[in-house]
Amino acid sequence: MVRIKHRYLLLNILYPDQKTANVRIAGRPGEQDVPYSVQFRQPSSDQLTPQILLRIIRDGVATLFGDYGSGKVSSSLQIKYFSPATSTAIIRISRDHYRLVWAALSFVTRLPKPLDQPCVIQVVRVSGTIKKAEEEAIRRARISIRRAQRAGKGKDVVVAAASGVQAVEGADEDDDFGMMDGIEDHDAPGEAEEDSDEAG
Amino acid sequence: MFYDLNVPWSATDAQLPRTLAFLDELGYNVVALNHTISGKLPAQISCAIPDPLPYKDLPAKLEIRRRVTLTLTDSYQNARLAELARAYDVLAVRPVDERTLQLACGSLDCDIISLDLTQRFPFYFRYKMLTEAVRSGKRFELCYSQGLLGDSSARRNLISNATQLIRASRGRGLIISSEAKTAIGCRGPWDAINLAAIWGLGQERGFEAMSKEARNVVVTAQLKRTSYKGVIDVVYGGEKPAPVEKKEEQRAEGGKVKGKQPAAVNGQKRQAETIGPDGMDAGDKPISKREAKRRAKQARLSTGDGEKDVASESAVAEPGAASGQKRKAEAHGSDGVAAKRQAKEVRLDTTNEGKVAVSASAAIEPTSTNGPKQKAGSLESDVETTGRA
Fold first, then answer.
1. Higher pLDDT, A181 or B142
2. Of A80, A105, A167, B15, which has the maximum CB count within 10 A?
3. Residues B109, B256: one domain?
4. Which family is this protein grouped under (chain A) (predicted)?
5. How near does any CA of chain A get to the CA of B21, in Å?
6. B17, B102: one domain
7. Are B372 and B264 contacting, i.e. CB atoms less than 8 angstroms apart?
């Protein structure tokens, strides 16, 4: 039997707008002092559930690609993992149509009605296995915590006190922030374990 | 390296640092602030974007360029485009109809041709016209932001025009930029590449449009402004290097020569070889006391001068070197090393009159211990210098 091949998109929800503060930073009346990278990567609201995210994607595909696109996408689209705390999600989509979903995600500028916040969704990794997407999510969370720590140095913004990540001076890791080989357009040999594990 | 060569700039925009920080967060490395001029050029052309920017919290790693976009209207006259180009880092033009597009592709000397893709053009883009522009180094710009933020007709026109542009240019000579007035209109580089892939530009081409082609624009524009006839640019003017650096280099070279000394070379060659390298391989390592004594003795024997005192090298060298050569040798340096060398030079002078003292000093291998190896070393260094020349 022929296995259906999927792609796993790791995506971040960023909040570039000043007014959308989902959390209040303790002991900070004015928001001006919070470094930008912390502002952009703030936690999502609790109201943002995987169901709402799925609805955003379906609606986006429907407006961009119409019934054809929705029909192609709907059978394989699935939210595998969503964490409001880090605003990170992993979604699964069949390999042939992941670009449709990706484009629909790029066209999102606003979360729908109950939240109604401006947001930007950035796909940071396209992977053939969920494991790789997971590892990338962890790596990126680490990097962003480190950045925030470095940016917040001197100010007493408690960013990651409980995260257990050490602040490394001048860490080189965040230099390779790109996705040079992040898009797996072709089949990799080690892709057999694709559906074996669930994230989160 | 990802480039976003179109971030609109206005003096009253309080959101700009936030937009720049967001672009940095998304992974862009170089951003061009865009100042748009339409209609008549002012009498006194100067860069409207201040340098440095008056914001305190700019991302440190983000490189910022200054770009001007001139809208080509019907009543356009060709004057003063060069003057405008000099004031900014990148010059873009925005044609509004087919005639001005033809003009921009052909004769105008600009870096970027930026079309407003949200409006409907009553003509097709022709391959010939576009390749003419691309061949002369101009790039076409796809701005995606209005498609994201605008209404559905703007989005439809953007997709239509972008597809047309990609089709007509065969995907060559395109750059992708945002033209985002707020941070919400920016997308990550790979998201924009995916959008272009949906519109018909291959992923590789899209990646090039984000990085290589955009870099091309920035670099050639810079070269046009700063270089001599767009060809030669002085990157490093040959100022005197720091003395520490030079010393290290010398030591490295000396070590290299020492490392590859062959076993034996004809002793007669020595004089010929000593002329060649002019002081390049003279290391500064002080010779041992024993060696100095040996040399002093040699010098004494060859000159025939019956000097008794061997303990002090300079004392030995000075009576021996009575000729004018000695003063030249002294000019090399007043430290102990130069004094030790003198003994050697004197011997050379007596065997071969008229040799320049500079070259003689070069022949002395302070690190080597015996005769044949010295010769081999100097031969080696001579070969090296000629090879380099």
1. B142
2. A105
3. no
4. Belongs to the eukaryotic/archaeal RNase P protein component 2 family.
5. 7
6. yes
7. yes
pLDDT at A42: 81
My answer on whether B178 and B272 are in the same domain is: no
pLDDT in tens, B154-174: 888 888 888 988 888 888 888
- Residue B93 and residue B111: Cα distance in Å, rounded? 8
Tokens of B339: 């004094």
CB-nearest to A177 from B27, B149, B182 is B27
Structural domain of residue B305, as residue ranges? 243-388
Q: Are B364 and B291 in contact (CB under 8 A)?
A: no
User: Hey, are the CB atoms on A106 and B203 less than 8 Å from each other?
Assistant: no
**Which CATH number belongs to the domain containing residue B31 in this structure?**
3.20.20.140
Residue B279 near residue B357 (C-beta atoms within 8 A):
no
Residues B310 and B222 in one domain: no
Nearest to A80 by CA among A71, A70, A88, A90: A90
User: If 0-12 CB within 10 Å is exposed, 13-18 middle and 19+ buried, where does residue A175 land?
Assistant: exposed
Domain endpoint, select from B164, B198, B226: B226
- Is B238 among the domain residues? no
Assess contact for B144 and B192: CB atoms under 8 A: yes
Residues B83 and B184 in one domain: yes
